[in-house]
């Protein structure tokens, strides 16, 4: 299996630097952003991104707004929400919009790595289903 391609989005630069290094040591390809708009711009240039790890509380565009944009424009990219300020309401909102999961900061790197792996597996399975459906359509329209 190819190395998972993830984006880490958080306004705390120390957190991003530390988590990015820890994820890279585990074989992940990591892209980082410190704000929501920057993250969305990077996603548009990196369409093979598989998972976004997204902080809920950020100045400007918060994580819920970014999640909403992601699911509207890039529905196959899985999003794991992270926050140090979790509320039941924000967790429910995120899950309703389509977040893959919701973790509290500070989170255990092993737990985060496992969630990323699960999200990658889900995304890749969805891509396989889409490709299979495309192939079946080609076969049925060409009568092969």
Description:
With 144 residues, the protein is an alpha/beta fold. It has one domain: Response regulator (Rossmann fold), CATH 3.40.50.2300. The chain has helices spanning 13-25, 36-45, 63-73, 88-97, 109-142, and strands at 5-9, 29-33, 51-55, 78-83, 101-104. Helix 2 (36-45) runs parallel beside helix 3 (63-73) and helix 3 (63-73) runs parallel beside helix 4. The longest helix is centred in the C-terminal third of the chain and has 34 residues, at 109-142.
The class by helix and strand makeup works out as alpha/beta
Main beta-sheet strand count, sense and barrel state: 5 strands, parallel
Strand order of the largest sheet: 2-1-3-4-5
Query: What is the count of structural domains?
Result: 1
N-C termini distance: 31 Å
CATH superfamily: Response regulator
Shape by Cα distribution: globular
CATH class: Alpha Beta
Low-confidence stretches: none
The radius of gyration is 16 Å
Q: Which topology does CATH recognise?
A: Rossmann fold
Number of contiguous helices? 5
